[in-house]
Amino acid sequence: MKNIASIILAAGEGTRMKSSLPKVLHNICGKPMLEYLIDNVNSLGIDKVIAIIGHKAGLVKERIPGIRCVKQDELLGTGDAVSRARAAIVKDNKIDNVLVLYGDTPLLKKETIQRLIEKHVSSGAGCTLLTAQLKNPTGYGRIIRSSAAKIVKIVEELDASIYQKVVEEINVGVYCFNKRALFFGLEKIKPENKKEEYYLTDTIEVLAKANIQVESVTADDPEEFLGVNTRAELGKAELVMRKRILEEIMDKGVTVIDPNNTYVEQGVEIKKDTVIYPYTFIEKDVKIGSNCAIGPFARLRPGTVIGDSVGIGNFVEIVRSTIGSETKIRHQCYIGDTSIGKNVNIGAGTIVANYDGKEKHKTVIEDNAFIGTGTILIAPVKVGKGATTGAGSVVTRNKNVPAGKIVVGIPARVLNKNKK
Ligand code: UD1
Ligand code: CA
Prior knowledge:
The chain has 420 residues and is an alpha/beta fold. The protein folds into two domains: 218 residues, Spore Coat Polysaccharide Biosynthesis Protein SpsA, Chain A, CATH 3.90.550.10; 161 residues, Hexapeptide repeat proteins (UDP N-Acetylglucosamine Acyltransferase, domain 1). It has nine helices and 34 strands. The strands form six sheets. Strands 12, 13, 15, 16, 18, 19, 21, 23, 25, 28, 31, 33 and 34 form a 13-stranded mixed sheet that branches. β33 and β34 form a beta hairpin. It is elongated. The structure holds uridine-diphosphate-N-acetylglucosamine and calcium ion (CA). Uridine-diphosphate-N-acetylglucosamine (UD1) binds next to β1, α3 and β10.
């Protein structure tokens, strides 16, 4: 989509979040809200993307490398925010239309945006916006239509009369503008409302009065339109996204025993016939092979890659580690910065001490090793192929266990006999 530019508004503080973190950087299933919008516009093939940043601009900019950012120094409203992108867009002759998105509507689906753009292009309207019918429209701008059902304006909750407040059609906050219509509208809006802000929504009335066509696309899944303004709404968005992620995983042939009590973040890949037991937390970008059993009560943190037919049981935490196929880690273990080979048995209560108070170190456990119950492995350390550690042994740093040998005790020493 070469002739469309996208402006994403992300300058607001998000006062109602009561947070020191800018609102758009709050995570939903392990990914900042703003990134969901950027992923959407990228996947639609929109090359020209401009983020409007303001509150803690440095922090926001850092999170979206490669995206052109324009600063809004004073938060004078959504209309003012869009005006900041004027210079970057107006003179670009390739651009005919401008897609405006708000950084706090992360649940929006790319198919919906696509539908909006298609309607906009085919109707040749000055603006096409997304609306939804909500039983409880509180907090959203209301769409006001004429008796002929034409959109005449949008009224914000704070400025709405009691008659306007009962309108159930709301402004989702997604717009596709003809470039000229957008900047024509923005020049005419005034901060004449309760908040004394320049509202982007006021451009609609300007266009309607100038007989410039305003169209709408109505979508019926209210979950998509949730604007995240409070922690309660953040919680709701998390629930919706979690459900979507689990449905996607189940669709690929994974069994999730209890979807209400399973937490899987963005970017996780799980292959078919793996079973996830309840109260398992799988953090972002973790990879799991096929035919595994994970949980209940397992926590897999970023950087974890698990092979096929692996068993990860209750109260096992794994971070930045690879686990080879057929390996079993079934009860109360901590595995960090470790590379574990194939067909390894990690006994109950095994702990990898990867952190010495200053730095993290690596541990290697090779194929077919048997780590006895309650072993502590002090990194950096290596357990060779087929080696065994006795129950309760403490394998100290750099005291590598030779392949095929048995070590026991504290500190662990090689038993003077070959492994049976
Ligand atoms: C806005 C819409 C409302 C709509 C709702 C949908 C306006 C005036 N109102 O209300 O009609 O129903 O979204 O969720 O547009 N922002 C800036 N600079 C500013 C102000 C805001 O970048 O000066 C950004 C915010 O960071 C946020 C987005 O714009 O990402 C929307 O602002 P917000 O204050 O949340 O608007 P709402 O009151 O939710
Ligand atoms: Ca909002």
